Amino acid sequence: MPETKLKIAVQKSGRLNEDSINLLRRCGVKFNNGLGKLKSEAENFPAEIYFLRDDDIPEYVHDGVADVGVVGENVLAETGKAVDAIEKLGYGKCRLSLAVPKNFAYRSLEDFGGKRVATTYPQILNEFFAAHKINADIHTISGSVEIAPSIGLADAVCDLVSSGSTLFTNGLREVETVMQSEAVLIARKNLPGDLQTILEKLLFRIKSVKAAGRNKYILLNAPDEKLNEIVALLPGIKSPTVMPLATGGWSSVHSVIGENDFWETVEQLKTAGAEGILVLSIDQMIQ
Ligand code: ATP
Ligand code: ZN
């Protein structure tokens, strides 16, 4: 009997491609992604990777061409396909925003009433306007939305933004957020049991990679008389590891710290007398 394989769809090229491939690699799924390849068999995990256009991924997952896939929440919402959103992946972060030309005297959403708004996300925008009882004229275009006002095609745009620099260089000003988005792992509904088992294995690894990404491993030397103070600054998973150094009166302290309060903790450790502080990235963190 042929081995059951989980078919995983990722973006072929574009903003989500590299991060998706790196995520799978960090999950220990080895595969070759030579340019122009449509699919690739994983060497050491029961999976096949499909390289597709992001817009098609929800449909392929829905229809069973792929079992799971990675897409932006924006694409998932726009296609409206009935698939399960299983896990947010923490990359591909952006927002779908309404923006107007700089000379547009914008005050509130009502100002979009009767205006032509260009977007590649007509479904999401339509729902948004309907929810706010705005009657605007949505123009669906397939790309380069940001130039629509300057060529007279629209009065405003609804487009994906991360830093806002594309809007700015095109003389546009972001005025409302329609939705926040990041990459998400989606799966076909009612996956057969054997595929579900493989998916759970992958999901466990994804969670470990995500947890690791938010944490750092820290090693330092502490004079014994400051040990209590230093240990108190480091929560660790359970508590820090403390080992005596060969040089008397000193200990080595190892711990895991979160990246959010990372610099603050390091400064406090130095003030408390820690020396030789090393900080390492963590590949996986199994919880
Ligand atoms: P494809 O050829 O696969 O259709 P695309 O041009 O539609 O690619 P990309 O521009 O590569 O798509 O964007 C893919 C996803 O990356 C978006 O749907 C969105 O979820 C996310 N993303 C993150 N930041 C941005 C941004 N600043 N602009 C556009 N998309 C972004
Ligand atoms: Zn696309």
Automatic annotation (TrEMBL):
Its cofactor is Mg(2+). Pathway: Amino-acid biosynthesis; L-histidine biosynthesis; L-histidine from 5-phospho-alpha-D-ribose 1-diphosphate: step 1/9. Keywords: Amino-acid biosynthesis, ATP-binding, Cytoplasm, Glycosyltransferase, Histidine biosynthesis, Magnesium, Metal-binding, Nucleotide-binding, Transferase. Residues 212-283 form the Histidine biosynthesis HisG C-terminal domain. Gene3D superfamilies: 3.30.70.120, Periplasmic binding protein-like II. The keyword RNA-binding does not apply. It is an enzyme of class 2 (transferase). SUPFAM superfamilies: GlnB-like, Periplasmic binding protein-like II. Its main location: cytoplasm. Residues 53-207 form the ATP phosphoribosyltransferase catalytic domain. GO terms for molecular function: ATP binding; ATP phosphoribosyltransferase activity; magnesium ion binding. It holds the Pfam family HisG. Its EC number is 2.4.2.17. Feedback inhibited by histidine. It catalyses: 1-(5-phospho-beta-D-ribosyl)-ATP + diphosphate = 5-phospho-alpha-D-ribose 1-diphosphate + ATP. It is found in: Cytoplasm. GO terms for cellular component: cytoplasm. Transmembrane segments: none annotated. One of its GO terms (biological process) is L-histidine biosynthetic process. Belongs to the ATP phosphoribosyltransferase family. Long subfamily. Catalyzes the condensation of ATP and 5-phosphoribose 1-diphosphate to form N'-(5'-phosphoribosyl)-ATP (PR-ATP). Has a crucial role in the pathway because the rate of histidine biosynthesis seems to be controlled primarily by regulation of HisG enzymatic activity. This is ATP phosphoribosyltransferase. It comes from uncultured Pyrinomonadaceae bacterium. The gene is hisG.
